[in-house]
């Protein structure tokens, strides 16, 4: 539906020269761009309890943040206001198509699609993000300034829910028109203000920090009742000071803890689970009554059947020594190595035809796993919608 053209660059050239290195203005990255939704549809999503949204206003430099869901849009004034809705790809299938051209970046790095609607001079102010983002201009125009990372740049809170940065020197100063795209790496200060009523689409990327990873790993250890081995010191000797914690003891504790990270099975099970976990709620509708494996096999035997993946689904896999570990929305599924091609088809495509899957000769284990995923509402037969 959307064909991405990164100026005169190939995808690999973009990755080599710009990804996580420097910002890039992509003029007409999407030629003849058509908005997948309008401001009224976006406002409708912002009224839903399960969808994260907010309105930011900046009248006379008085920045205010209002959290959704919204019963009305009194705060969305004729100027100096912005409505932002997170994870629209989870709820709007046409908008979710905007993620597809960016899947030359691995699945586990793609986070969500945030959409904003701004009235003239509306924006969120100068700020930093700690993740990569492609900002697509839809309806209207927006004036953007982007700088390079500057460790001396100070952040401050305009209010309890809005961090901004002080003035910065711009290396990109432009007006985006429909179909233009701005790529901004982590740590680059940027600010954008609507020239006229404007829709913007932000494709954000996930970049967990050490705290996030260690906290998640600790939770996994507790949930799986792993890490039961205790500290031992059967070779302890007398020492002059009762209060000393020796370097040898420090190293032994460090080794005890590191053994968990070096447990390959434990680590990969956790990593697949945590990196495939969605951050936002999903529009899941489990099948009632559930399908049997035989019914799904019948669907798969019809080569014209098309299965589609629910928006927001995170599907990744790891090829291990003796099996393939498929991870979908935080759950792990082990399958034989012979199912590698089938698993690739599942994770690399948002929809597939049964004929393509049948060419991989999937095992019974794969069919049973796929049946579970269909019954959970994660994949569905488009003819049965």
Automatic annotation (TrEMBL):
It comes from Pseudoalteromonas prydzensis. This is Cupin domain-containing protein. It comes from the Bacteria. PROSITE patterns: JMJC. Residues 94-222 form the JmjC domain. Its cofactor is Fe(2+). The keyword Hydrolase does not apply. The lineage of its organism: Bacteria, Pseudomonadati, Pseudomonadota, Gammaproteobacteria, Alteromonadales. GO terms for molecular function: 2-oxoglutarate-dependent dioxygenase activity; metal ion binding. Pfam families: JmjC_2, WHD_ROXA. Gene3D superfamilies: 50S ribosomal protein L16 arginine hydroxylase, Chain A, Domain 2, Cupin. The keyword Ion transport does not apply. Keywords: Dioxygenase, Iron, Metal-binding, Oxidoreductase. SMART domains: JmjC.
């Amino acid at each position: 539906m959307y064909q991405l053209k990164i100026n005169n660059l190939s995808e690999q050239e973009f990755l080599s020269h710009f990804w996580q290195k420097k910002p890039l203005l992509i003029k007409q990255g999407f030629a003849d761009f058509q908005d997948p939704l309008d401001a009224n549809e976006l406002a409708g999503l912002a009224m839903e309890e399960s969808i994260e949204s907010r309105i930011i206003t900046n009248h006379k430099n008085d920045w205010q943040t209002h959290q959704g869901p919204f019963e009305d849009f009194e705060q969305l004034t004729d100027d100096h206001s912005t409505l932002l809705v997170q994870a629209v790809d989870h709820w709007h299938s046409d908008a979710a198509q905007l993620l597809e051209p960016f899947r030359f970046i691995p699945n586990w790095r793609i986070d969500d699609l945030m959409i904003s609607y701004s009235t003239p001079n509306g924006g969120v102010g100068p700020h930093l993000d700690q993740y990569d983002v492609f900002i697509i201009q839809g309806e209207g125009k927006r004036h953007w300034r982007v700088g390079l990372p500057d460790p001396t740049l100070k952040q401050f809170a305009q209010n309890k829910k809005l961090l901004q940065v002080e003035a910065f020197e711009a290396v990109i100063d432009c007006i985006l028109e429909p179909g233009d795209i701005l790529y901004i790496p982590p740590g680059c200060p940027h600010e954008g203000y609507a020239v006229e009523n404007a829709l913007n689409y932000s494709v954000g990327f996930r970049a967990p920090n050490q705290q996030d990873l260690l906290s998640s790993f600790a939770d996994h250890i507790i949930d799986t009742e792993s890490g039961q081995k205790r500290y031992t010191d059967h070779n302890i000797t007398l020492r002059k000071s009762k209060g000393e914690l020796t370097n040898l003891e420090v190293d032994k504790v460090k080794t005890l803890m590191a053994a968990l990270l070096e447990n390959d099975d434990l680590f990969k099970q956790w990593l697949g689970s945590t990196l495939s976990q969605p951050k936002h709620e999903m529009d899941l509708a489990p099948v009632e009554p559930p399908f049997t494996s035989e019914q799904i096999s019948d669907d798969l035997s019809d080569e014209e059947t098309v299965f589609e993946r629910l928006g927001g689904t995170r599907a990744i896999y790891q090829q291990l020594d003796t099996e393939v570990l498929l991870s979908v929305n935080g759950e792990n599924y082990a399958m034989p190595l012979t199912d590698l091609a089938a698993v690739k088809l599942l994770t690399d495509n948002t929809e597939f035809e049964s004929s393509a899957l049948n060419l991989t000769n999937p095992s019974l284990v794969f069919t049973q796993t796929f049946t579970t995923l269909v019954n959970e509402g994660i994949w569905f037969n488009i003819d049965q919608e």
